[in-house]
Write a structure and sequence with these properties.
By secondary structure, the protein is an alpha+beta fold. It contains five helices and nine strands; from the N terminus they run βββααβββαβαββα. Strands 1, 2, 3, 4, 5, 6, 7, 8 and 9 form a nine-stranded mixed sheet that branches.
Length: 286
């Protein structure tokens, strides 16, 4: 299954007053199902069938990016995405290493598998045998920072978002008749700047877990009270990425022409998901 790289570099996001720096790229392994023309099968406003996201392995944690993990996050971004992010971007990654952070990494916790026994060698006792790597090493949500007890931790992916204020809904960004100098009050929206996952850890529900961690934060932290939607740019030719978002409740809007400078075709689609009462109720029930 081929990996998909989506969202990517942004100059001006098709509307005045909101400038996107070198931002929004996503590299995930997505399914082979495609949507006709890359638009998704559901018109705006039409109900979508329920989609059950795959649960990530129990030995995966999603945590705020800290000074201890930002270098790994940077390496993943550099490896997967054809964009050179400025230092300011990574400074923002660690600016808020708390549960209210909109910058998260997925961490894979693992204990090494037992080595193959030599002929005639006695097996290890149950007390000495390493744990199954699919079982979390502890009940703590914080990953270990060392390799004590032979536990290794690996940053396998990450997501970074930022809060923006727009005078109109993100679905209207491509329309030239809407601009930031329109009258009316602005509302808060969450913009997905980057989302990336290493190839060996794809198709395990980890990408969806990163996205869900952001939605949970938006719905439960008072810092983001009143946030109306979460949105991103997706390369117009990346039907797999568009389908991935549609399956997770996003709608696909119009084209932002000339959004990409290094891709042909150069257009981007706006994908967005409004935060509704159901999202807030779901967080309260967990």
């Amino acid at each position: 299954m081929a990996s998909s790289e989506f969202n990517s570099r942004g100059n001006q996001a098709g509307h005045r007053g909101v400038y996107h720096e070198e931002s929004t790229t996503c590299a995930l392994n997505l399914g082979k199902e495609r949507t006709a023309g890359g638009l998704g099968p559901f018109p705006s406003g039409e109900a979508r069938p329920a989609f059950q996201s795959q649960q990530p392995p129990q030995n995966v944690s999603v945590d705020p990016i800290t000074t201890a993990t930002v270098s790994s996050f940077r390496r993943i971004i550099s490896l997967l995405l054809p964009i050179r992010y400025p230092e300011k971007f990574f400074a923002e990654s660690t600016a808020n290493p708390t549960p209210s952070s909109l910058a998260r990494v997925a961490i894979w916790h693992e204990r090494p598998r037992p080595a193959k026994r030599k002929l005639g060698e006695k097996p290890q006792s149950s007390e000495e045998a390493p744990l199954n790597p699919d079982i979390p090493p502890s009940s703590s949500s914080s990953p270990p920072t060392t390799q004590s007890d032979d536990i290794t931790t690996t940053v396998v992916g990450g997501i970074q978002c930022r809060l923006e204020q727009l005078p109109f809904h993100p679905s209207l960004i491509p329309s030239s008749k809407h601009s930031s100098d329109q009258p009316g009050s602005s509302r808060k929206y969450c913009y997905i700047q980057t989302l990336a996952l290493l190839s060996p850890y794809r198709s395990k529900g980890i990408g969806a877990a990163l996205l869900e961690a952001i939605i949970t934060t938006l719905c439960t932290d008072q810092t983001y009270e009143g946030t109306a939607s979460i949105y991103a740019h997706v390369w117009e030719a990346n039907e797999d990425a568009l389908d991935w978002y549609v399956k997770r409740g996003f709608q696909v809007g119009d084209m932002v022409h000339g959004y990409y400078t290094r891709l042909k075709p150069a257009g981007a689609k706006i994908v967005w998901r409004d935060l509704v009462v159901k999202d807030y109720l779901r967080q309260q029930s967990t």
